[in-house]
Predict the structure.
Amino acid sequence: MAGKLKNIIEDIARDHLNSALTLRYDICTCSICKNDMLAFVLSRVPARYVTTEQGALHTIIQQHRLEHQAEIGRAIIEAIDIISKNPRHQLKEDKNKVFLLLLDKIREDRGLDFHHYHQDLLKRRVAIRLRAAGINTYSDYLLLLMKSSEEYDKLFETLCINVSEFFRDPEVWEVLKILVQNMIHQKKTDQNHFIRIWSAGCANGEEPYSIAIMLKEILLAETASLRIEITSTDVDKKCLKFAQKGVYLKSSLKNVPKELLNKYFTSEEDGYKIKDEIKQAVAFSYLDLTSADYIKSTDIVFCRNVFIYFDRNLQEQLLMKFSYALKPLGYLVMGKSETLIREAKEIFQEIDLNARLYRKK
Ligand SMILES: C[S@@+](CC[C@H](N)C(=O)[O-])C[C@H]1O[C@@H](n2cnc3c(N)ncnc32)[C@H](O)[C@@H]1O
């Protein structure tokens, strides 16, 4: 028995259009606009009607998908461009304006100012929450934030991106080990028994605990005794709580040599717990790097994989802040994918580009 007539180009075009629109936070993707885009594509690509049973249909769609991919792709690009510029309905919101309102609201409600973060990166992250909540516009999302503190927490988690691991970029830690060894020798000579380190943007604590382990190992090898103070700060309160607990999954410990794992962690039901002797050296607290606060008289500031979120202006302010935070000739460590902006080269001297290690001039 013959099946129903079906234009398989429509199915193929719908699939392509949906994936092309997934990351388009910058245009309206409501159902009216989506339908208009699809209609536009179908007016450009000739229909292919088939009438067949289900089994064979899949193979035929696959053949046509390959055959018409480029043609459909071109029509979709054109459709998105034309329809997004001339939506049939009144545009519900001026996306950029409402996005700024959203940032204002976050600043007012939660005291965290994202205005000087890279806007494209923020929009991509907010788009994740919009999709998860099944919402199309920033205005509707603002309404949801008014009602739901849970959504606020999820938004922060998404915006703060607190991925980290112990001894992240192991080759950098080789350089740091030599730096700290030299620093300790110098402190011994100067009869200075104190080292203060600031881990700024410490996420779940992997970075400051790595620093503490490295220091402990060096001090043991050098039979030196030194008071260690590692101040670790972040704006994500959930992260700080996690860090204080100090229990980690194996995945974040992949760079920790087995002997250090056995020495400084205890295996527990829910993961590996950092031992108290390491914990004692690390203090966690809330500190917003966009505010005026900083930790004073530090020997080394670690601020790795945080600069990437900030615009140039904020990066400049932050580098000034770190220069105040550091003792003369103190060190700054940035993330592997970050570079020192030109203006800061007046204040910091490059020591090791590969390790993103700089010294205050
Ligand atoms: C990708 S993690 C970096 C963690 C660690 N430094 C590393 O390199 O593995 C970025 C951290 O920066 C924090 N952060 C973002 N904006 C911040 C701000 N204004 N003040 C302090 N921390 C911030 C986030 O909460 C997140 O924990």
User: Anything to note?
Assistant: The chain has three domains: 6-85, 95-160, 170-360. Residues 6-85 form one domain. The first helix runs from residue 8 to 21.
